TrEMBL record:
Catalytic reaction(s) noted: Endonucleolytic cleavage to 5'-phosphomonoester
SUPFAM superfamilies, sorted: dsRNA-binding domain-like, RNase III domain-like
Main localisation: cytoplasm
RNase III domain sequence ranges: 4-132
Amino-acid positions noted as binding Mg(2+) in the UniProt annotation, renumbered to this chain: E45, D118, E121
MF (Gene Ontology): ribonuclease III activity
Keyword annotations from UniProtKB, A to Z: Cytoplasm, Endonuclease, Hydrolase, Magnesium, Metal-binding, mRNA processing, Nuclease, RNA-binding, rRNA processing, rRNA-binding, tRNA processing
Subcellular location: Cytoplasm
Family listed: Belongs to the ribonuclease III family.
Function: Digests double-stranded RNA. Involved in the processing of primary rRNA transcript to yield the immediate precursors to the large and small rRNAs (23S and 16S). Processes some mRNAs, and tRNAs when they are encoded in the rRNA operon. Processes pre-crRNA and tracrRNA of type II CRISPR loci if present in the organism.
A Pfam match: Ribonucleas_3_3
Name by which UniProt lists this protein: Ribonuclease 3
Gene source species: Anaeromassilibacillus senegalensis
Length: 228
């Protein structure tokens, strides 16, 4: 795949404003290397994460009317986790068109799961903004979420954040918060550290190549300390 036109055919959407698509495919390392001449997909990823969560929750609520809230939460977590989103993105070959710094390219950025997962969210947001319609973004997301949800069944998925949230919710008034405490390394080899707080008290710490991975590790540590 060599062009944005071919890519649009693969994802099933033609952009009116192709700069949105280019931004959705631009990693922060490339933006930093260009010294302000372009922007990365990070803001789009932020928006896309919310759209993806809502569309997936709405679909599961309608498609699985007999599932209780706890199982719906776990099913959603398995569908929007890094591994799932990375697989979706690989299926339409976004890695080939990613704009990365030289260092990120040489270190395997085009195949890095955390980056590919982010790109699924950034493309979702780009479609939403370009079309001015939630329906177009929803159509894109459900192309992947719907078949994955039907094939997953009750496949086990260890989502430590969801498990921790469910335990804490048993005590009304308790509040969980994930706090980014560190971000180290060059753009092509970032490492994030996160603390999970319960009512401002640190109950777990974690690290990883993405913020989501670090949060999962922090939640896992908290669960272990609580005896789960």
């Amino acid at each position: 795949m060599k062009s944005l036109e071919e890519f649009e055919k693969k994802i099933g959407y033609s952009f009116r404003d192709r700069t949105l698509l280019q931004t959705a495919l631009t990693h922060s390392s490339y933006a930093n290397e260009s010294r302000g001449r372009t922007i990365s997909y990070e803001r789009l990823e932020f928006l896309g994460d919310s759209i993806l969560g809502f569309v997936t929750a709405e679909y599961l609520y309608t498609a699985f009317p007999d599932l209780p809230e706890g199982k719906l939460t776990k099913k959603r977590a398995s569908l929007v986790c890094e591994k799932s989103l990375c697989g979706f993105t690989r299926s339409f070959g976004a890695g080939e068109l990613l704009r990365l710094s030289h260092g990120e390219q040489h270190s395997g950025g085009r195949e890095r799961p955390s980056i590919l997962a982010d790109v699924f969210e950034s493309i979702t947001a780009a479609i939403y903004l370009d079309s001015g319609s939630l329906e177009e973004a929803k159509r894109f997301v459900l192309r992947f979420i719907e078949p994955a949800a039907k094939s997953a069944g009750e496949r086990p998925f260890k989502d430590h954040k969801t498990m921790l949230q469910e335990i804490i919710q048993q005590n009304p008034g308790e509040r969980l918060e994930y706090v980014l405490t560190g971000e180290h390394g060059p753009d092509h080899d970032k490492h994030f550290t996160v603390e999970v707080h319960l009512n401002s008290n640190v109950i777990g710490k974690g690290g990883g190549r993405s913020k989501k991975e670090a949060e999962q590790q922090a939640a896992r540590e908290a669960l272990e300390l609580m005896g789960y």
